[in-house]
Amino acid sequence: MQFYASPEQIMRDRAEYARKGISRGRSVVVLTCRDGVLFVAENPSTALHKVSEIYDRIGFAAVGRYNEFENLRSAGVRMADLRGYSYDRRDVTARALANAYAQTLGAIFTEQPKPFEVEICVAEVGATIDDDQLFRLTYDGSIVDEPHYLVMGGQTEPIVNTMKDAFEEGMALQDAVAFAMRALSAATSSSNGDNGQTPGKVEVAVLERSRPRRAFRRIEGAALTAVLPAGAEADDEADDKATGESVDPAPETDGDSDKS
User: What is d(CA 34, CA 171) in angstroms, rounded to the nearest whole number?
Assistant: First the structure.
């Protein structure tokens, strides 16, 4: 017997499937501050990064299925390198990359049996805080230009409410990290019924406004411990004190399909 499903029902089922997968991941917060664009992600893994560098002044963050958003990140790096080599490095912009990601995600959502279970952010640091750009892209290719901050994955509502009430434009980097951690702890407290509980291990990076070319810097080891509030955990082993390299190491595996 042949079954029929309307196109509207098929799209609703795909959207629900993707949203459920994304909601099982851990949250990521991206916000602008005086020193640049800050990324703070809950990430228990020390090998698989949710925050990465795309190009000179462009960063990438994602939640959902790791192997899917890692494929998108790699494609973005190749596109940026090709465009920068063919024309000029200044022609590589977050807006162009976000538009390319939107087309790819939209085509996958409508044409493939299974949509990508991902939500991504493409951010670019500008000369001033008013020039910073944050683009959020969802599983169906929708794109939103966020003015100051965005939250992806996990329980976003308590985090967004906390940020909406307390966000201040032009915060210093250390204040911005503490603010992001307070916002993430709101979701942790909401899910556990506790007050003031801090999230687990975090991954922190920044697109630094003052750096001349490659603005991306991963904050880890002793540098991360110095900016984290008391009680929070860095995304490093206790005996592995890093110095905050700006180079984004390649992931150690491409086949991981866990939600992150």
Answer: 5
**For residue 196, is pLDDT > 70?**
no
pLDDT of 141-178, one tens digit each? 999 999 999 999 888 899 999 999 889 999 999 999 99
Q: What's the average model confidence in pLDDT over 192-217?
A: 79
DSSP assignment of the chain equals ------HHHHHHHHHHHHHHHHHTSPPEEEEEETTEEEEEEE---SSS-SEEEEETTEEEEEEEBHHHHHHHHHHHHHHHHHHHHHS-GGG--HHHHHHHHHHHHHHHHHHSSS---EEEEEEE--SSGGG-EEEEE-TTS-EEEESSEEEESSSHHHHHHHHHHH--TT--HHHHHHHHHHHHHHHHHHHHT-SSPPPSEEEEEEEETT-SS--EEEE-THHHHHHSPTT-EESS-TT------SS-PPPS-S----B-
Q: How far is CA 96 from CA 90, 100, 139, in A?
A: 12, 6, 18
What's the mean pLDDT when you consider all of the chain? 85
Residue 221's CATH number:
3.60.20.10
Domain containing residue 150: 11-234
pLDDT at 233: 58
Q: Does residue 171 sit within a domain?
A: yes
Max CA pair span of the chain: 65
Query: pTM, whole model, 2 decimals?
Result: 0.83
Q: Is there a domain that residue 88 lies in?
A: yes
